[in-house]
Specification:
By secondary structure, the chain is α+β, with helices and mostly antiparallel strands. About 50% of the residues lie in helices and about 20% in strands. The chain folds into two domains: about 40 residues; about 110 residues, no CATH class.
């Protein structure tokens, strides 16, 4: 087999085609990199908001860990709370000012009626759940029985 020699014109056309392929490859590569960087920055920036929104839906009907709530404001938090002890019981707060308010108004803030039975319970001993799906408001329960009955009645 003999190789056919290319004319200048054919060589020029071949070079143009190869240049187009190279440019297309570069464009796709840099576009992919750019999209990946933007996606990473957006996800990294809004990570706490993403977790918070997920928890508002995923934890509905399940026990909410005490370290995710502020017992002074009865809200689900974007970040983990701080556990502080008062009168021998551990309570969760979003910050020091909530703790100070809780200490000043202990009788009003530390005890709350069970959301299903209505019995008065201490927040430190209660089971915690979300009041509504997609909302940060929390409710307290005396035991697992009232916890389950509350969510069965809401279906």
């Amino acid at each position: 087999m003999s190789k056919k020699k290319l004319t200048k014109r054919e060589l020029h056309e071949k070079q143009i085609i190869e240049d187009k392929k190279f440019k297309r490859t570069l464009l796709i590569s840099f576009s992919s990199l750019f999209v990946f960087i933007i996606f990473y920055l957006v996800f990294h920036t809004f990570w706490h908001d993403t977790k918070y929104t997920y928890r508002q839906y995923a934890l509905y009907g399940k026990q909410v860990p005490a370290e995710l709530v502020c017992m002074n404001g009865d809200k689900l938090l974007k970040h983990e709370s701080i556990k502080l002890s008062y009168k021998g019981k551990n309570y969760s707060f979003c910050n020091k000012s909530c703790y100070d308010h809780f200490v000043k108004h202990f009788q009003e803030d530390a005890f709350i009626p069970d959301s299903f039975s209505g019995d008065t319970i201490c927040k430190a001993d209660a089971l915690i759940g979300l009041k509504n799906r997609g909302e940060p408001q929390i409710v307290y329960f005396q035991n697992i029985k009232t916890f389950n009955q509350y969510y069965k009645s809401r279906k």
